[in-house]
Model the fold of this input.
Amino acid sequence: MTGGEHFVLSGHIVYTPDKNTFSITENGYLVCEGGHVTGVFATLPERFSALPLYRYTDCLIIPGLCDTHVHAPQYAFRGLGMDLELIDWLDRRAFPQELRYADLAYAERAYGQFVSALTQSATTRAAVFGTIHVSATLRLMEMLEKTGLRCLVGKVNMDRNAPDGLRDPEPDEALEQTEKWVKQALSRFERTRPILTPRFVPSCTDRLMEGLGELQRAYGLPVQSHLSENVSEVEWVRELCPWAESYGGAYARYGLFGGAAPTVMAHCVHPTDAEFDLIRRQDVLVSHCPASNANLSSGVAPVGRYLDAGIRVGLGTDVAGGFDLSIFRAMTDAVQFSKLRAHFMGMRERPVTLCEAFYMGTKGGGTLFGKVGSFEPGYLFDAVVLNDHRLKAPGALSIQERLERAVYLEKDVVIEHKFVQGSEITGGVPE
Done:
């Protein structure tokens, strides 16, 4: 099977057209035409009867999962340094590891492990941080391109407050290297696209941020970075940028915070009222990374508030601040930690539901990539087939209950098949 073919999947079809609703069609039919969803049907219409039919009897068929924030070079040391807070963790774990990607042979070995794991997961799309190294970042993009996944990959920019070897000596050189990388990436790759990536405000001078804003406008690229993750980090930005109304305002000054520049900001744990309103007005996508926020003592983001305000929210694994590439794990963490936040806030805020968490991991995060993460007509055809037959129960369960158990007990669930934009990623034999 190749991208753009017409075919039908049959099984229990589940998706979330909105954050409060599971759409469930038992023993239904999901039609793909030209890489797009035509529709979900309880009975297959006659006009599709000649299409190849892939039966996944009694399996769950869900949209592909979207990881809106992950650091590829950090996959090599996941599970280490989880007793540290953010700034110490960066200095003692993340930065020393990322220095190693100047060695292309090492980068190929490490990125090969990351790409293999991502391909085998239920994730179909991801927003990925690389390092400052042009050659290593291009090699990562080459590897991802071959998988069939659809990814946004960023060459990181840093010209202050970073170790030698990870700090560009001066901003104009950093901008020159970044534009060189952008041009190569745009000309060489179809499924793997560049995204501008200032590491975070403390690591980027005003001149570098200004130049990245110019590149964004010249090439129309999306932007990814970090925002209001940790209390000490927020205070640091306040010291570095006393002119900014908020941390987000330090990006917005240079056109790197939504509006005409599609933007995803990871974490957003400690927004001021002004920043919260700026996120909403500029239509910035919040990447909620609950595991990382717990591991690095950052706190718990006010996800319920974001959702209630109509702010777009996706989920991120934030490997290696998070130690697992699973967006299913991010869903369960989002529910669990939101309950803790609600409790410690005296129930002034509400916890999120599993339906909302599933929505964030599919359609919510999918907004970063276009019409992605749903089985509504016209959406790009990203789908994952889950076999949950190992999860025994003494009595009958509804399809929604089976999905919930599959999310929480994913280690006992088999990914039978994965499609990205209508293209086969794993197995599957038509009738």
